[in-house]
Each structure stands twice: as structure tokens, then as C-alpha cells.
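Chain particulars:
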Amino acid sequence: MTFETGVKPGEKLKATLDQVVELLNKQDLVSEITSRQATPRHELLQSLLVKQQLAEVQRRIAQLHPADLAFVLEGLPLGRRHVVWDLVRPEARGAVLLELSDAVRTRLIADMQENEILGAVEHLESEDIADLVPSLSKHTVSALFDTLDREDRSEVQTMLEFPPGTVGSLMVLDVVTVREDVNLDVVLRYLRRRSGLPARIDHIVVVDRGGILQGLLPIRKLLVHDPDVKVQEVLVPDPIFFYTEDAATDAVQAFERYDIITAPVVNLHDRVVGMITVDAVMDYRRETTERDRLKQVGLHQDEDLFAPIWKSARNRWAWLAINLVTAFIASRVIGVFEGTIDKLVALAALMPIVASIGGNTGNQTVALLIRGLALDQIHRGNLGYLVYKEIGISITNGIIWGAVVGAFALVFYASVSLAVLMAVAVLLNLVIASLAGVFIPLGLRWLGRDPVFGSSVMLTAITDAMGFFIFLGLAAAFLI
């Protein structure tokens, strides 16, 4: 299948998925038609036609990049996903598994035989094998280590020592190093003798005899300078580098800020032990972004879009339970003012507006605070100004939009007192929502919790309950 020039990558991926689905639909149609034909060789004919259709699917997926094939698999229901997965070449399966989401990967591996898993993994680099180990059973991991040679096994074990979310867990061990006291000609001969170069290499790491980082030798300088020049004369001193224990988020920020492609990784003794590349950083950022989005809606883990109903339902219980509790709290606040609502029915129609606009303001503040915490931009020195700013914003918006809401109440209910009440309630709830949006993420961080998970539901509970309480309380005090 060919694509016109200028087709967006997302559209191309969707077209690929659509084509695979179409081929699978043809297979189902052929099977259905042949099953209705009562011929002496009915089963043989049906088998040949099905194999022909599957061969076409296999030819199509064999042309796909592992990441594109992973996209196709994630977009298929479970039954069809296994049909396509069975058609993937064994030597390509390992690369595809690395590109899949955690939930889909775990499910596919669970349905694979141990020898199939080992066959898929044997084609991967040590760093990639380490990425797959957490998805494997202990018995399979043991069998996998038995198949690796001594060097590969040592490299995999080294990678597994670094906790997830650290630079060490993202680095590659294949790094090209040269000493600073050699000529560029020596470096060129050394590179020619290597069987290959690491992917995305844009510089060579310069070290001393003890392996201590001294600087970087850009490939462009290696190519354009006189071969007799020594490395120390053209190297870039004081390069950006990372320790193995540094947080991966630090690497994400540095790669974005300085537009770098690769950076050396050193241990606590400043010895170069690996390299971190931009593709690993991008993958980490994408995974954490997707994970945070799921956390914001109460999903504790990655969820397969086509997972069984019961499993998906259990994954959402915690969120529903928490929301049920907050709904009960809000309902009890309203229950306290049942008499007030009975005397002025308009309150029932207007009070959701107060709670809704407060929730929106709070969510905006929460989003900014979580981003600031992730980028380490918030500390004690600027917290006071941040609170002052958010209160100022909420007061400004409260006056403007409170007036709008008040005008709405005046037009529909012809009551000046009710209009004023609405404006004041909106103003007060926006202030409370802003304060909650600041201190909820900070409080969760102080307690050692992830600010992403739980902030939204806690904010909703506060803005709903306080919105109802302020509005109905003011009505009971001044209108009834």
C-alpha cells in the first residue's frame, strides 16, 4: 500500500490499521462463505482460502516498523490481535514487544510459551532485554539468563540494578570512548575497526586513562579537522552529563532545554558507564505523560482498550468509590439546607453553577502546580508569591464572572438580592478553589504521594461541597 506525499504519520498509521482490519474481514467472510458450501473437499478448500488470506496479512505486517505493528496490535480486539501476533516473524517479536503498552505486552507474553518468549528475546540488545524482564515470570527470567552468554548476562543484571525512573535505567551501555592524548587519525582508524557504531551517535566521549569523563569530541570536528590534531585540542570541555542515579525527569528537562541528542552517563566515581539518547528520553516522557493522564482519572495502571470487561471494571473501582464518597458529602451539604431550597426553588437551579465554575478554576490551578512541581520550579522562596498570585487571579475572575452570573440570575429571576448573592458566592468559591488547587498538590507531595493521583477528586469534593455551602448558607442568612 502506498501513501501520497504529505500524508501525516497519524493518518498513515490509521490507514495501515484499516487495511489490516479489512484483510481480516475478508478472511472472516471467506470462512463464512466456504462453511456454507457442502462439497466433498469442503474442509480442504476452506483451509486453503484461510491460509491465503492470512498469508496476505502476514506480507502486510512484515513490511511494518515494529512501532507501527505495535500500534496495529493495540488497535485490534483480543481475538484478532492474537491472529495477527501469530503471524509476526519470531525474530521481529522482541522489537514489537518493546513498543507495546505495558498492558498489551503483559497480556501477549502471558499467552506465549516459554520457548517463544526466549526466541523473541534472543534478538534484542542487553538494554532491551532488561526492559522486558519485569514483564516475564521468574521461571522465564531464569531460563532466559541461562541462554545468555556471560557478557550479555552481566550487562542485563547491571541494567536491572538501576531503579525505574533513573537515568541509569534509560541508558545504553554501548558507548564509544577515546583518550584525549591521541590524534584524530587514531580515532578514525579505531572507528573503522569497530563492527558498528551506536545509533544516533553525534559525538565521541573523551576519557582519561582511568575512564574519567574529560569532554566530548563532536563527529563533525573529527571529520573536518587535520588528522594530526590531538583530541584534546578540539574536544568540548565541561559537557552536559548525568549520573546513573539522577532522576529521568532531569534528563528530560535537559534534553528539551539544550536540544541535545545524546549525553554521557557516569557513575559516582565519574567514570563513563553509558550513554543516554534522545529516543530513550522521548519514550520515557511519552510513557510518563500517558501514565499521569490515567492517574488523573483514577486509573492506577495502564489499561488495554480491549481488555476483558471484568478486569477493566476492577481497574476503575477505586475512582468510582472515591467519587461516591465525595458525592455523599456534597449531598449532605445540600440536605442541611433543604428547608431553604423549599422556600426558594430558584436556588436548586442556580447552585450547580457556583460549584461548576469553582471546579474549573481549581483544575486549572492544579494543572499548573503539578507542572511546576514536576519541573522543580516551586520552592519555599516563591510559594508565598504563588499563593498571592492565584488569590489575585481568582478575585479578578470572581468579580468579572460573578457579575456575569449575577446578571444571568437577574434576567431570569428578576431578583437583585439573588443576583448579588450569586456574584458573591462565585467570588468566594473561586478563591477557595484556587487555594485548594495550590495546597492539595503540595500536601500530597509533602506526604510522599504523587500529586497527580488524587488531586482532581479531592478538588472536586472541596469545590462542590464549599460551593453548595457558601451559596445556600448565604441564601439562608440573607434571603429567607
Summary: The beta strands are 177-179, 203-207, 213-218, 242-243, 262-266, 272-277. Residues 425 and 470 are 6 Å apart (CA to CA). The longest helix spans residues 380-413. The longest strand covers residues 213-218.
